[in-house]
């Protein structure tokens, strides 16, 4: 019963952060007003397979944007932070014989909580979970009645993060590694050779939503970043490894993306502060 | 003075201004093992997630491309069982026979010819192999039969004063029979096009829809036209799709209904003219019309082509198209080899010499007789 109450509190704080905020409105300066926001832009390499469209792997360049927002909460005595991660990527790929092309795109929004474990003054481990929404497409430029595949899936993911703060010549740096692994979800997929005409025009929706887990969707997203202070700004450089795989309705899919990212981080307090906050970021 | 990194808090609370000091030493430093355990758990998940999902790849050589094509058809083509029953197609024996013709040093054009011949064993106009220099095709479904259509004779009937609505050409013939020629379903047909055309022809005694030499296009376009000829929802057939790699792995048949259009609907008698080149989406249109009470099919068998085609590709980049989802009539009969007309009529050489289209003439007589009987 206690566990259920704790779970409900956890969910309610996740879904209704404004409510949680109101409870603390009597405090003027608090950790949960500390917000980190970053936007990273990058380019990379991607490898796409979708056997609904073709048995061949298509490879090519991709462009990616990652927008992130982290904020401490008052949950569990201020040891829990929220993270909102929005990623979008678009890629143009070709087959190995250079006779066909595929255009693909995916938008992913993840939102979740991390519990902070302080290992020492430099190292912190964050552990938690995320809820993920994904939507996208792959378009094969020369197919007939199977020209495109829609991507739509939701996941619950386990998430972990390592934060390491260090100084070189008294300049503070922050290195971070994050990994998200989906362990349960629902995915849209046509059946083995079901046409979109049959699904959407004739209305045969049977079997197009499938449960996914590690056995049929072994995927992970990882993000490695280094924050470098430059004057009053903080430059963030990083690498995104996005491994999305599925084997649903006998259709094999994978997208292996590796992108190098750069952008800027903004740390701010919801009540304006004169102090520099970059050094004091909990993230 | 710059703040010391070592003394900084990870909580995010500026130490000077914080009103509620957080007991970081007691709270945070009490459970690092839990964090490490969580990381270990993630590591295990990571290992479980590290299996790659890939497709078997064949070498890009003649043997590899042959095997890849044979496998695509073996696992994805939807009529292997039906054609085994219909004319004894044995896809394994096809492999044995054609594999012997593959050599390591054969040219791309030589390979293309062998693969094209192998695909022709399927006797399916929806099966093609596309290379940069050629498209392998099987057209015996209309080439081996009388054409039963002449565009120069049709021009005599249409004259120069016919009207055009999207891909439809139409006019009123001398005996007050409406004539509509639908040459393709490749482009969509607008509701406005259909309503205007049917209003224009509303005073006719009957209507001829000529879909000869219409080799298909979009199923949605053919359905939109057929919807103008029913006042109620009618079961017109079923569709299946393959659910696995086995030759008999099919989904339960999905009923396909024809719903009445909200626009102008034709209430009088209709004749649909067909020939062996009425194929694919046109075959589907003819099947739908064949389920309606006021519709009669006149002409030759349709060409068939009832498998919704999908595409795939070979290691060398050649594209292959094949039938993936079979469609049936309401009695679950296959339509792959065509639909029999209600009244079989071939164009005669005597009529052709006179500039007459035997099939149009038969349809006009049929509709006029029905009109006379009705009055």
Task: Walk me through the structure.
Chain A has 283 residues and is mostly beta strands. Chain A has a single domain (35-280), classed as OPCA outer membrane adhesin/invasin (Lipocalin, Beta Barrel), CATH 2.40.128.100. Chain A is 11% helix and 63% strand. In chain A, a hairpin with a 7-residue loop joins strand 5 and strand 6 (148-168). Chain B is 34% helix and 17% strand. Chain B has a 7-stranded mixed sheet with strand order 3-4-5-6-9-10-13, sandwiched between helices. In chain B, strands 1, 2, 7, 8, 11 and 12 form a 6-stranded antiparallel sheet that branches. Chain B folds into 2 domains: 62-143, Transcription Regulator spoIIAA (2-Layer Sandwich), CATH 3.30.750.44; 151-307 and 325-374, 2-enoyl-CoA Hydratase, Chain A, domain 1 (Alpha-Beta Complex), CATH 3.90.226.10. The chains are: A mainly beta (283), B alpha/beta (375). The interface between A and B is large, with 85 and 76 residues.
Strand order of the largest sheet of chain A: 1-2-3-4-5-6-7-9-10-11
Count every beta strand of chain A, where a strand is a DSSP E run of 2 or more residues. 11
The secondary-structure class of chain B comes to alpha/beta
Strand content of chain A: over 45%
Order of helices and strands of chain A: HHEEHEEEEEHEEEE
Number of domains as seen in the coordinates of chain A:
1
Molecular shape of chain A: elongated
**Major sheet of chain A:** 10 strands, antiparallel, barrel
Write a concise synopsis of the structure shown.
By secondary structure, chain A is mainly beta. Chain A has one domain: Lipocalin (Beta Barrel), CATH 2.40.128.100. Chain A is built from four helices and eleven strands; from the N terminus they run H-H-E-E-H-E-E-E-E-E-H-E-E-E-E.
What's the layout of helices and strands?
The complex is a heterodimer of chains A (283) and B (375).
Chain A (H helix, E strand, L loop, with lengths): L1 H14 L1 H7 L10 E17 L3 E19 L2 H4 L1 E15 L6 E18 L4 E18 L7 E21 L2 E18 L7 H6 L7 E5 L6 E11 L2 E16 L2 E19 L14
Antiparallel strand pairs in A: 1-2, 1-11, 2-3, 3-4, 4-5, 5-6, 6-7, 7-8, 7-9, 9-10, 10-11
Helix pairs in contact in A: 1-2
Chain B lengths: L23 H5 L3 H17 L13 H15 L3 H8 L3 H9 L8 H13 L7 E3 L4 E2 L3 H4 L7 H8 L4 E3 L2 E5 L4 E6 L8 H10 L5 E5 L8 H8 L7 E6 L14 E5 L11 E5 L6 H10 L4 E5 L7 E7 L5 E10 L14 E2 L4 H5 L4 H17 L1
Parallel strand pairs in B: 5-6, 6-9, 9-10, 10-13
Antiparallel strand pairs in B: 1-2, 1-12, 3-4, 4-5, 7-8, 7-12, 11-12
């Amino acid at each position: 019963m206690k566990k259920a109450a704790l779970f409900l509190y956890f969910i309610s704080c996740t879904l209704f952060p404004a409510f949680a905020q109101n409870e603390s409105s009597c405090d003027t300066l608090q950790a949960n007003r500390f917000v980190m926001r970053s936007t990273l832009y990058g380019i990379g390499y991607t490898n796409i397979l979708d056997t609904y469209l073709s048995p061949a792997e298509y490879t090519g360049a991709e462009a990616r944007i990652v927008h992130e927002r982290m904020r401490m909460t008052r949950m569990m005595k201020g040891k829990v932070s929220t993270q909102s991660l929005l990623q979008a990527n678009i890629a143009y790929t070709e087959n190995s014989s250079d006779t066909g092309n595929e255009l693909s795109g995916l938008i992913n929004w993840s939102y979740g909580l991390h519990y902070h474990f302080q290992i020492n003054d430099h190292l912190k481990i964050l552990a938690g979970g995320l809820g993920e929404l994904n939507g996208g497409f792959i378009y094969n430029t020369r197919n007939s009645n199977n020209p495109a595949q829609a991507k739509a899936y939701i996941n619950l993911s386990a998430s972990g993060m390592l934060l390491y703060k260090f100084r070189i010549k008294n300049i503070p740096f922050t290195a971070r590694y994050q990994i998200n692994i989906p362990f349960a979800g629902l995915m849209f997929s046509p059946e083995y050779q079901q046409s979109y005409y049959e699904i959407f025009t004739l209305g045969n929706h049977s079997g197009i939503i499938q449960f996914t887990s590690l056995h049929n969707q072994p995927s992970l997203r990882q993000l490695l970043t280094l924050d470098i202070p430059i004057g009053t700004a903080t430059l963030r450089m990083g690498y995104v490894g996005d491994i999305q795989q599925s084997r649903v309705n006998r259709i094999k899919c994978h997208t292996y993306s590796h992108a190098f990212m750069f952008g800027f981080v903004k740390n701010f307090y919801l009540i304006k502060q004169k102090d520099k906050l970059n050094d004091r970021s909990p993230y | 003075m710059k703040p010391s990194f070592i003394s900084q808090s990870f909580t995010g609370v500026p130490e000077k201004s914080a009103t509620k000091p957080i007991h970081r030493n007691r709270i945070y430093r009490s459970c690092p093992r839990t964090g490490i355990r969580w990381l270990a758990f993630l590591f295990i998940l990571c290992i479980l997630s590290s299996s790659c999902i890939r497709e078997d790849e064949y070498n890009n050589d003649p043997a590899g491309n042959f095997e890849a094509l044979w496998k695509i058809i073996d696992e994805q083509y939807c009529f292997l069982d039906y054609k085994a029953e219909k004319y004894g197609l044995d896809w394994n024996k096809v492999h044995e026979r054609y594999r012997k013709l593959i050599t390591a040093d054969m040219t791309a054009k030589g390979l293309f010819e062998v693969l094209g011949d192998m695909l022709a064993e399927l006797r399916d106009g929806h099966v093609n192999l596309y290379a940069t220099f050629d498209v392998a095709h099987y057209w015996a479904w209309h080439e081996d039969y009388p054409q039963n259509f002449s565009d120069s004779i049709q021009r005599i009937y249409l004259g120069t004063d016919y009207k055009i609505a999207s891909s439809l050409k139409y006019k009123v013939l001398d005996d007050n029979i409406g004539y509509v020629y639908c040459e393709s379903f490749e482009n969509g047909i607008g509701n406005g096009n259909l309503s205007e055309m049917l209003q224009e022809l509303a005073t006719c005694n009957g209507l001829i829809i000529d879909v000869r030499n219409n080799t298909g296009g979009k199923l949605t376009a053919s359905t939109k036209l057929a919807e103008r000829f029913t006042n109620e929802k009618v079961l017109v057939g079923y569709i299946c799709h393959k659910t696995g790699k086995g030759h008999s792995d099919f989904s339960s048949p999905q009923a396909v209904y024809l719903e009445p259009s909200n626009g102008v609907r034709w209430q009088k008698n209709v004749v649909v003219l067909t020939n062996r080149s009425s194929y694919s989406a046109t075959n589907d249109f003819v099947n739908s019309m064949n389920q309606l009470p006021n519709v009669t099919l006149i002409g030759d068998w349709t060409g068939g082509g009832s498998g919704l085609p999908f595409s795939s590709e070979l290691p060398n980049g050649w594209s292959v198209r094949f039938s993936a989802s079979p469609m049936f009539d309401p009695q679950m009969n296959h339509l792959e080899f065509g639909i029999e007309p209600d009244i079989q009529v071939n164009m005669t050489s005597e009529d052709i010499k006179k500039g007459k289209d035997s099939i149009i003439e038969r349809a006009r007589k049929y509709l006029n007789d029905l009109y006379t009987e009705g009055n």
